């Protein structure tokens, strides 16, 4: 029986045919075995041992005789999917000095193969079952655990049986051989190489300083080059035998099958697993103390100046109880009040760009309060003192009850939202939440029970000024304090200056506390008289999407989807987007994401807007699309009318507070130096602009243009764009269609008629073919580089079918390039291929392959990519390869189609371009009915070597000088 009314996912007619294709090459896959003898399972709810928190009745728990613990649960979001999480209590903190990185290395090796599964075959088996490698099947290693993840789409007893057998064999008998180690070690070293950069070096310094004297200080998860190159099959096998044991393993299964089946499969495949030798003792992780260095400094020119302060306390989460959670909520309210005050000052104009406090439990090693300060410019001392002044004021004087109530009401609103939408929480999210609870030694309970705990704290009057002041003082005291500073230039006296700034008298710097204005939605500028519904039709019959046109020209698309109970998505498209921006000169358009919404509405600033929406489910985000500007939000049935009114008023009576523009300018200046700090930074800054033949609409401006940004020019540019162009409103989700149509009529229908928006730049250009790759330079590590090769595709609504089929061709290319560049050559951790077809532009589409790799391997990547393209042109692919690309793509689309964002994307702009609405009817056949010959024809059309464009990002000729904290 379904727990809630579910929207039927997209029917893809070829899916059943694809799944029924002969499983060519599958003869080596493991076959399901007969069920073993019954297993005596302890059904005690092990998660709640020592806790008085209410059990979530949706979970079933059990412990096998060998000690393996499990939790299973029925969940139908998305329909047909089963999420499996296999958690082993071993991470970098369990490694000895010579084993650093072994837990993560073993994670990689386990996926390669096992006693029953040949090398690389698990990936192929799961692809045939619809699993996308990297997103549906993956793993992660932390300092305290390793978790294997599998999201199995369209699951049934057979596919689950096969998957559980593979996972069980991965745990008990992975292929740890010299050959597999020789193949996978370069991949792990590539992952390490690609991650190293300014942020990683800062994190290394932070870890060593904060956790000095504790095991975590010198246990990076990735390990070291020395220990990884020194690893042997025997040493890794010994590590596996010591730590991979059933009594250290937790298995979680959540999905759209019977929990009885989940329990039976766990017993069938995992009950026989036995550990080798005696069970190891988990090492002591240590406790923080004040007997270690209190500060550290590093020089990273591409990072902004930053000061990070920490107060350390021992980790004490030994029992997760109601009282513990209620007291922690008071702590969180105290921290939220500090953050609210810090952000208010930053918005008003202060010496810092951003500043925030955080309270967390770190890898079972410490409870930490951190305060981070990023100054405007280089004056970190003034910024630090200003932030310390705010904190000192919070320590000395209790907050007002109004401040406390605001935070409490917002938290309660978030918890009520979680209750309203609990029935549509994804199974993968449920599984991840329970695994996270295991990791931090806490429990998980129902959303209703969580609110009950919070309400209990309210009823006990725990949120009073006196209690919150005491909590503030408690979370800012500890057994040790630490401070890290980064500057762009070296200063021999920097730590002395830091110590002085931390000791300086900051009394009085906080100033008078801001008082909250009494504002509500009635404070918004009024709109005009509501218009009329002039036309109504069914835009899409299946699923039914209604189309409405109002008397002022506004159009609307409405989709009632009860599958996402309590959740409504709103998207307001207006103007021409990228087509309204000039393509031959730099404009202030780049700053809109940082400053346009923050400018306020009428005379109300962002502070007042936050105040009236804080305890409501009302949000706003701005974006620039190919053919429209977009303001989007997510809301609830109760808040829909006000959500629509807020966006409509923003367009009709925008505010132009100059302070967000100044802050946006400062943020861009602070981050400017980072744009060339690494190969991926160069790609993020320059690739889109280069793929659009240098069009400035797709790039960030140079420093001089950033520094020119001012409030007058920003308003002059954006004010006419906000006021012009057709408006299309999409309202999708848990709606009453008639009420939603009326809510749009009384908000957007009450706006003044808008003038037409001019298309300034319709054409989108692709760069011309180059005989040799374009070369850009980065200032990071000398052994890092990137390579890109792209082929021009199409765009627009004329041939959406072709764009959809190109996604399948890209999936074939991605799998081939992953096998060759990562699994065989071992030169890159994350090569990928992506197909993009912008429906809102007549061109601009591309198939693009890119990766990070060593500088001397860029030619290899480009050669391999071209070889793959040439082979796809030369002959049709085999049916099994088609299956392994097609089925995961189809399953991904099918799962996405159960949610509202998928249908919003498919229909956006449809009231102005009916071809987009018509294309919804061909979704199934476009993806599902794709054969080898069609993919070959697409390769011939688009992957010609005479049309490709390539680029490499290489290190500057002078090697980067290692900064403090570098490995």
Please describe what this structure looks like.
It is built from 31 helices and 23 strands. The strands form four sheets. Strands 12-13-14-18-15-17-16 form a seven-stranded mixed β-sheet, sandwiched between helices. The protein has a six-stranded mixed β-sheet with strand order 1-2-6-3-5-4, sandwiched between helices. Strand 9 and strand 10 (366-375) form a beta hairpin. Mean pLDDT is 94; it is low at 1-31 and 958-967.
Labels describing this entry:
alpha+beta; 967 residues; 7-stranded mixed beta sheet; 31 helices; disordered C terminus; 6-stranded mixed beta sheet; single chain; 16% strand
Explain the layout of strands and helices.
Blueprint: H1 15-19, E1 60-63, E2 69-74, E3 82-88, H2 102-112, H3 121-128, E4 137-141, E5 146-152, H4 157-172, H5 178-195, H6 198-210, H7 225-230, H8 233-243, E6 249-255, H9 259-270, E7 295-299, E8 306-313, H10 322-348, E9 352-362, E10 366-375, H11 380-396, H12 401-420, H13 427-439, H14 447-459, H15 465-475, E11 480-487, H16 494-503, E12 533-540, E13 545-550, E14 555-560, E15 568-574, H17 592-595, H18 606-613, E16 621-624, E17 629-635, H19 640-652, H20 659-672, H21 679-691, H22 703-708, H23 711-722, E18 727-733, H24 737-745, E19 774-778, E20 785-792, H25 800-824, E21 832-836, E22 846-853, H26 858-874, H27 879-896, H28 900-907, H29 914-919, H30 923-928, H31 932-942, E23 949-955
Parallel strand pairs: 2-6, 7-11, 14-18, 19-23
Antiparallel strand pairs: 1-2, 3-5, 3-6, 4-5, 8-10, 8-11, 9-10, 12-13, 13-14, 15-17, 15-18, 16-17, 20-22, 20-23, 21-22
Helix pairs in contact: 2-5, 3-27, 4-9, 10-12, 10-14, 10-15, 11-16, 12-14, 25-26, 25-27, 25-31, 26-31
């Amino acid at each position: 029986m379904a727990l809630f009314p579910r929207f039927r996912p997209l029917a893809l007619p070829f899916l059943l045919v694809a799944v029924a294709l002969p499983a060519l090459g599958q003869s080596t896959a493991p076959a399901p075995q007969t069920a073993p003898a019954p297993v005596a399972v302890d059904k005690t709810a092990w998660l709640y041992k020592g806790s008085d928190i209410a059990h979530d009745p949706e979970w079933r728990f059990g412990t096998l005789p060998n000690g393996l613990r499990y939790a299973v649960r029925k969940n139908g979001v998305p329909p047909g999917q089963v999420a499996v999480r296999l958690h082993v209590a071993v991470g970098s903190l369990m490694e000895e000095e010579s084993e650093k990185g072994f837990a993560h290395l073993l994670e990689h090796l386990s996926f390669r193969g096992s006693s029953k599964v040949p090398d690389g075959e698990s990936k192929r088996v799961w692809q045939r079952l619809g699993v996308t490698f990297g997103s549906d099947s993956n793993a992660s290693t932390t300092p305290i655990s390793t978790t294997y993840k599998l999201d199995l789409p369209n699951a049934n007893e057979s596919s689950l049986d096969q998957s559980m057998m593979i996972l069980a064999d991965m745990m008990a008998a992975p292929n740890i051989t010299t050959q597999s180690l020789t193949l996978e070690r370069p991949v792990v070293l590539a992952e390490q190489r690609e991650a190293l950069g300014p942020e990683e070096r800062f994190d290394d310094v932070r870890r060593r300083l904060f956790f000095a004297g504790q095991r975590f200080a010198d246990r990076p998860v990735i390990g070291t080059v020395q220990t990884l190159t020194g690893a042997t099959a025997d040493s890794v096998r010994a590590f596996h035998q010591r730590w991979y044991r059933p009594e250290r393993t937790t298995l979680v299964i959540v999905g759209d099958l019977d929990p009885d089946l989940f329990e039976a499969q766990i017993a069938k495949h995992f009950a026989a697993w036995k550990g080798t030798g005696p069970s190891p003792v988990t090492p002591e992780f240590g406790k923080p103390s004040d007997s270690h260095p209190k500060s550290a400094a590093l020089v990273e020119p591409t990072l902004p100046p930053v000061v990070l302060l920490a107060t350390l306390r021992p980790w004490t989460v030994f029992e997760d109880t109601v009282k513990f959670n209620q007291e922690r909520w008071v702590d969180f309210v105290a921290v939220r009040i500090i953050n609210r005050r810090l952000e208010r000052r930053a918005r008003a104009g202060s010496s810092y760009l951003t500043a925030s406090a955080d309270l967390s439990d770190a890898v079972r090693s410490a409870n930490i309060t951190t305060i981070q300060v990023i100054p405007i410019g280089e004056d970190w001392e003034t910024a630090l003192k200003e932030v310390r002044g705010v904190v000192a004021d919070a320590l000395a004087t209790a907050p007002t009850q109004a401040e406390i109530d605001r935070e409490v009401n917002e938290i309660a609103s978030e918890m009520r939202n979680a209750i309203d939408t609990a029935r549509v929480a994804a199974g993968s999210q449920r599984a991840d939440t329970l695994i996270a609870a295991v990791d931090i030694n806490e429990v998980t309970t129902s959303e209703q029970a969580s609110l009950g705990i919070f309400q209990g704290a309210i009823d006990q009057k725990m949120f009073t000024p006196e209690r919150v002041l005491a909590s503030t003082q408690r979370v800012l005291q500890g057994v040790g304090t630490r401070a890290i500073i980064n500057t762009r230039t070296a200063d021999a006296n920097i730590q002395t200056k830091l110590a002085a700034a931390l000791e300086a008298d900051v009394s009085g710097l906080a100033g008078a506390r801001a008082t909250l204005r009494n504002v509500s939605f009635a404070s918004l500028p009024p709109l005009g008289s509501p218009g009329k519904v002039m036309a109504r039709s069914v835009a899409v019959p299946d699923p039914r999407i209604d189309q409405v046109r109002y008397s002022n020209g506004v159009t609307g698309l409405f989709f009632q989807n009860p599958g996402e109970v309590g959740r409504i998505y709103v998207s307001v498209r207006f103007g021409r987007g990228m087509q309204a921006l000039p393509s031959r000169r730099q404009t202030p358009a780049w700053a809109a994401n940082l400053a346009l919404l923050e400018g306020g509405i009428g005379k109300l600033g962002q502070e007042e807007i936050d105040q009236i929406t804080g305890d409501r489910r009302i949000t706003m985000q701005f974006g620039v699309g190919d053919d429209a500007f977009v303001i989007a939000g997510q809301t609830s049935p109760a808040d829909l009318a006000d959500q629509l009114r807020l966006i409509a008023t923003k367009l009709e009576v925008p505010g132009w507070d100059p302070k967000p523009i100044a802050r946006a300018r400062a943020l861009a200046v602070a981050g400017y130096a980072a744009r060339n700090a690494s190969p991926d930074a160069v790609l993020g800054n320059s690739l889109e602009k280069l793929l659009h033949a240098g069009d400035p609409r797709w790039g960030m401006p140079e420093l001089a243009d950033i520094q020119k940004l001012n409030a007058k020019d920003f308003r002059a540019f954006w004010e006419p764009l906000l006021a012009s162009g057709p408006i299309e409103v999409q309202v999708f989700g848990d709606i009453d269609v008639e009420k939603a149509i009326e809510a749009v009529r009384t908000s957007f229908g009450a706006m003044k008629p808008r003038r037409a928006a001019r298309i300034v730049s319709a054409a989108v250009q692709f760069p011309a073919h180059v005989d040799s790759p374009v070369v850009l330079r980065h200032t990071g590590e000398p052994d890092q580089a990137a390579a890109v090769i792209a082929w021009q595709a199409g765009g627009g609504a004329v041939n959406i079918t072709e764009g959809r089929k190109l996604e399948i061709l890209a999936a074939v290319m991605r799998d081939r390039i992953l096998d060759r560049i990562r699994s065989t050559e071992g030169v890159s951790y994350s090569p990928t291929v992506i197909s993009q077809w912008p429906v809102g532009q007549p061109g601009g589409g591309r198939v693009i392959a890119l990766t990070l790799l060593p500088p001397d391997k860029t030619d290899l990547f480009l050669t391999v990519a071209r070889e793959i393209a040439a082979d796809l042109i030369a002959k049709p692919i085999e049916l099994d390869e088609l299956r392994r690309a097609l089925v995961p793509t189809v399953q991904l689309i099918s799962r996405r189609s159960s949610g509202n964002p998928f249908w919003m994307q498919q229909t956006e702009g449809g009231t102005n371009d009916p071809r987009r609405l018509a294309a919804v009817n061909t979704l199934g056949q476009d993806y599902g009915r794709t054969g080898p010959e069609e993919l070959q024809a697409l390769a011939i059309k688009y992957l010609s070597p005479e049309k490709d464009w390539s680029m490499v990002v290489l290190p500057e000729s002078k090697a980067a000088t290692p900064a403090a904290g570098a490995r």
